[in-house]
From TrEMBL:
GO terms of biological process kind: tRNA 5'-leader removal
Superkingdom assignment: Archaea
Ligand binding (Zn(2+)): 66, 69, 96, 99
A Gene Ontology molecular function term of the record: zinc ion binding
Protein name: Ribonuclease P protein component 4
Top enzyme class: hydrolase
Textual note on the cofactor: Binds 1 zinc ion per subunit.
InterPro entries given in the database record: RNP4, Rpr2/Snm1/Rpp21
PANTHER family found in the cross-reference section: RIBONUCLEASE P PROTEIN SUBUNIT P21, RIBONUCLEASE P SUBUNIT P21
């Protein structure tokens, strides 16, 4: 049987996470409208909430904001996103266009002959077609080895 304290903590954590995600969506919406100063203030509130409640925001929420200036990172608007591979390591390079800060997030390649596992579009707040799949289903050649 679970103790009352653990049930209360779990429900508290759920409430705080919902609020963090609501603040993140609000900050992204403000940034898309061009109000980056207001978006930064909302992001600062989000991270103050996380610090005061000791509930860490999920990784997908943390990666939506620049760690240096707290600007929401929206590809093509406030961030540049590139995929790089060097020395057997693959990573996503996200550059904040406000302060120039560079974030590198490693990702694993999938099984042999399969597609690589890349960060989801939702992680960076883009909402477009970022899956890496080709629109036309024509011949693509032999599968890559590696």
């Amino acid at each position: 049987m679970r103790s009352r304290r653990s049930r209360c903590r779990r429900s508290f954590t759920t409430l705080v996470r919902r609020e963090e995600e609501r603040l993140a969506r609000w900050a992204l919406e403000l940034a898309r409208r061009g109000l980056t100063g207001d978006a930064r203030r909302v992001a600062e509130q989000l991270f103050q909430l996380a610090a005061s409640t000791r509930v860490r925001p999920p990784r997908r929420v943390k990666r939506l904001f620049c760690k240096n200036c707290r600007t929401p990172l929206i590809p093509g608007l406030t961030a540049r996103v590139r995929l790089r591979s060097q020395g057997g390591m693959s990573y996503t390079v996200v550059t904040c266009l406000s302060c120039g800060w560079i974030h590198r997030y490693p990702y694993r390649k999938g099984p042999r002959g399969g597609a690589s596992i890349s960060p989801s579009a939702a992680e960076y707040g883009s909402g477009g077609r970022d899956s890496g799949e080709r629109e036309d289903k024509g011949p693509q050649g032999p599968p890559r080895q590696g």
